[in-house]
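Quarterly update, task 2.4: 2-acetamido-2-deoxy-beta-D-glucopyranose-bound model.
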Amino acid sequence: KQRIYRIPEEQSPGTVVANITAKDPDDEDSPSRLFYSIQSSDTYFSINPSTGVLQVSGRIDRDVLPLQLHPNVSMIIRVEDSPRVGHSSEMEITVIIGDINDNPPECNPSTFRKEINENTTAGIVLLDLRNSCRDIDVDPPNNLFSFTGLSGFGSNNFALESAESGRLVMTESIDLENPSNPGVEVYSLTVRVQDIASPNYSNTIYIYIRIKPVNEFFPVFSSPSYEFYVPEITKVGSSIGKVTASDADWPPSVITYSIIAGGGTKDYTNAFWISPINGDVKILERLDYETTQKHFFTVQASDQEKTATASVTVNVLEVNDEEPICSPNFYSFQIPVSLAVGTNVNGFRIQCQDRDSDPRSFRYFIGGNVNNHFTFSPVAGSNTSQLILASPFDYENGLDTKWIYRLRVYITDDNLLSVKNKATHLVKTGTVTLSIRVIPNPTTVTTTTPGFTVVTKKENLYLDSAWYVPFVTTLGSLLLLGLLGHLLARWLCARCLSAPQADSTPLINAPEKKKPKKEVALEMIKLNTVFDGEARDP
Ligand SMILES: *[C@@H]1O[C@H](CO)[C@@H](O)[C@H](O)[C@H]1NC(C)=O
Ligand SMILES: *[C@@H]1O[C@H](CO)[C@@H](O)[C@H](O)[C@H]1NC(C)=O
């Protein structure tokens, strides 16, 4: 009346499960005609109506519902001796479906990605693979699996804690700066997840581990301090030097440069500029040696997190960029034609100064110096020199024809201070203009100090309106004539008396006495060189 059978799952259709047999006492001696059927509706099995052979008719999967939970399939088998009005009997058959190992372990996800910082301490558990894997086979050991076969690039840095646990452990701290594996950031591993039971189905798990770089190192300047040498004539915008910093971190850090202190001058808060990208230092204004010989500033290199500083000294190099400045720079005077050779002309003395040259570095040249009448003494080696008449004027023989000399005096500095630096050796020139007029009559001219001299010749003449003048003159003349007549008479008389000595003084006195009607006076007025355009007769 009741039977239990056991079959494994996944038997192919047609597999015989049971031979159901029945006996009919009516047919003791002859083979009976009995009919078998399954009463409950079931898709797993079928029964041969005439033979009673119970066979598998559909797929029986123990690993899915409902068999997963209820592996016993019960059915009522009915047997009849006649299709229409016969007798029948029933029995209950239970088929217990057994589990077989027909599924591999499955992991979801089957690909893992994990990021860890470089230099993470060895021994930490990175992944627990078991949590995401299972085997749908229902009964052990079919549903048991293990993790093996860790392989792939970098697998020596990692290990599975045990085959059962499926925990991936880092065995070695990874340093991206380590020369043995520089910059290796991604490790790709595979692990096999495999059934313990035969036939040992397996699957593959893919694991990608990325080592995140950690900014461990500070940037380091190639030198703790830099010295640049810049000639003072260097153009604004020129590059004057370069600082570099490096950083041991992997990946190579992008370093940015900046000036964080100093670098200002009196007129500019930032006289220097540094390229953030390559550390190139440029000047934003002209550097003047005569003002400041050294500039200091501090540069910083930053890898966005860590910084380093270095000091920069800019030494301004002296270049002869200053020209001699001399005084007076214009001078006009007159000299007598008879001036003796060797005389300091008009007492003229030039005085020069130069902000970047030695007082001994001056040289004096004269342009427009026709017949080389003039020279400076000394011609070189002093910041002061006298104008000397070098050769006499000779207009009478036609050697000289020029009465006005316009001398251009060129004063050069020999640049003794920067002569050591040949590349920047320059000569700067200053000029002074002299205007010299040679006066044929030397008597009227004497000047000793700068400025020009107006020589005024004043003739004192009588006015027409001065009526008393001709009166007095006439009277005087008459008296004089009278005196002359008297003297003549006495002289004749003395001659008659044969006097040997005669006084000739009156003869000399006579023309002198005729002159007073005209009186000449010379007056010299010294004026400043600034002439206001107005002249007055004092
Ligand atoms: C079922 O029974 C028949 C006759 O009794 C026999 O020939 C056959 O081999 C049996 N099959 C099984 C599977 O036992
Ligand atoms: C000329 O040089 C001397 C030193 O040699 C200096 O004392 C003097 O001040 C200088 N004169 C001028 C005008 O610069």
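Highlight for this quarter: The first helix runs from residue 468 to 496.
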